[in-house]
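The records we work with from here on pair a chain with its fold. Each token is a code from a learned vocabulary of local backbone shapes. A record is reproduced here so that you can trace the correspondence yourselves:

_____
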Amino acid sequence: MKKGMSIWDVIAWIVLALILLWVILKMLGVISTPLWLEYAPIYGAIYLAGWQVHKLEMVAREVHELKQFKYATITEINNLKTNCIRNHKNEGKEESEEN
């Protein structure tokens, strides 16, 4: 099941595109900004990096939960197999005792 992009993903991609556009226009000399504003794209890029790390942590947490579910499911299936084998052996003993 694939989820669509959230609004925050869209905003982050828009900000990243705007930073890239700003850098290109700045390099071409189209944009002339004061010194204090020169570092705004760097701060934006740092924010986006933090956002991406947060998303990766969420994915890692979900993968961990899926692994736990997988192991619990395997254990449950193995228990069911063991119970089926025991029941089958017990039924065989009961039939041999009747004969």
Notes: The mean pLDDT is 83. The chain has one domain: 7-98. Helices lie at 7-28, 35-38, 40-98.
